[in-house]
Amino acid sequence: xxxxxxxxxxxxxxxxxxxxxxxxxxxxxxxxxxxxxxxxxxxxxxxxxxxxxxxxxxxxxxxxxxxxxxxxxxxxxxxxxxxxxxxxxxxxxxxxxxxxxxxxxxxxxxxxxxxxxxxxxxxxx
Length: 125
Hints:
Elements lengths: L4 H22 L6 H14 L1 H8 L5 H10 L2 E2 H21 L4 H20 L2 E2 L2
Parallel strand pairs: 1-2
Helix pairs in contact: 1-2, 2-3, 5-6
């Protein structure tokens, strides 16, 4: 039985993306969901066991299952994402002592994030 070298590259990449997803929960401004979706995709090609554990997890499972089943997010998930973006922008732009270029950068990235969130399909739930 030959070892597939691609799997040996995809698996650590999946672990890295999952770690970034966990950091995204803790750090404002770092999105968790895209990294978790990417980790699930990488695990689907490298480790079915890790993919199954991720999809069945209490933390990330519901969003992953919604995405896989319906290619969308629930209204609650949408509002939660928009709330996190708003809080991050408010703290960075109005409370934190940062330069103007950083304020504009955060505002621009937030606008892109809001655009993406609003374009995602809303599913019942």
